[in-house]
Design a protein that fits this description.
The structure is a single chain. The chain contains six helices and 15 strands. It is elongated. The chain has two domains: 169 residues, UDP N-Acetylglucosamine Acyltransferase, domain 1, CATH 2.160.10.10; 59 residues, no CATH class. It is of the alpha/beta class and 257 residues long. Helices cover 37% and strands 14% of the residues.
């Protein structure tokens, strides 16, 4: 029990930069309080004391503004940020290292008594106000945007936005060599392309990454061509790329000092 509590406290510091100390987290974080209450109510539910479990859940909702049904299954290092208005249904299942923001609903779409609430696998993040409805599964690493409504299962490492929710990006990290190549070209050109975004489905960042891959391939081809010409006795001048910081701006683009 104390090991779980320690994990829960540490994950607050990992995911909330405003957390200052353990005393503050223990006394002023309703998400942590709701999780502790749920562990108690879930145990009571499991041993058959269902009315008492519901009462503990009811008290937790009254104190924290977070409603978690005692029958819901929750993994380790679960974090609810802010928390007000979060609702987790009876047959919902939440894996390890998941995060919910305020106003999130893990709800059902039918009155069937069987499985009717969603399953979140590991490392899932659900943004503020999002609704995940029905007996669907969100795979490992899924990101759900704020106010999205998700009613279909989502494959791992995807990003979902909109109403109804649609997949806009699959976060597939580049290989080690590809990532190093992108970084080298970005440094050579004089800017950091990764400053735009690392995970969000940003079309500009995606275009920059593709451009860096293209430039890297052109660099290799030009270098190969230069070496071939030099072997044939043709003198080739090696030119340095200009620093992008030296580009002159038009009067409208100049920034005031």
């Amino acid at each position: 029990m104390f090991t779980r509590l320690k994990e829960d406290i540490l994950c607050v510091f990992e995911r909330d930069p405003s957390a200052r100390n353990i005393f503050e987290v223990l006394t002023a974080y309703p998400g942590l309080h709701a999780l502790v209450f749920h562990r108690l109510s879930h145990w009571l539910w499991g041993v058959g004391l269902k009315w008492l479990a519901r009462m503990v859940s009811y008290i937790s909702r009254w104190l924290t503004g977070i409603e978690i049904h005692p029958g819901a299954k929750i993994g380790r290092r679960f974090f609810i940020d802010h928390g007000m208005g979060v609702v987790v249904g009876e047959t919902a299942e939440i894996g390890d290292d998941c995060t919910l923001y305020h106003g999130v609903t893990l709800g059902g779409t039918s009155w069937d008594k069987g499985k009717r609430h969603p399953t979140l696998q590991q490392n899932v993040i659900v943004g503020a106000g999002a609704k995940v409805l029905g007996p669907i599964t969100l795979g490992d690493g899924v990101r759900v945007g704020s106010n999205a409504v998700v009613v279909k299962s989502v494959e791992p490492n995807a990003t979902v936005v909109g109403v109804p929710g649609r997949v806009v990006s699959k976060k597939t990290p580049p290989s080690g060599e590809q990532a190093r190549n992108r970084q080298k070209i970005a440094e050579k050109m004089g800017f950091d392309a990764y400053g735009s975004t690392g995970e969000m489905p940003d079309p500009v960042a995606n275009a920059i990454h593709l451009m860096l891959d293209h430039i890297h391939t052109m660099d290799k081809n030009m270098d190969s061509l230069r070496k071939t010409l030099e072997k044939e006795g043709v003198e080739v001048n090696q030119l340095d790329l200009p620093d992008l910081d030296d580009c002159e701006l038009t009067p409208k683009e100049k920034k005031e000092p």
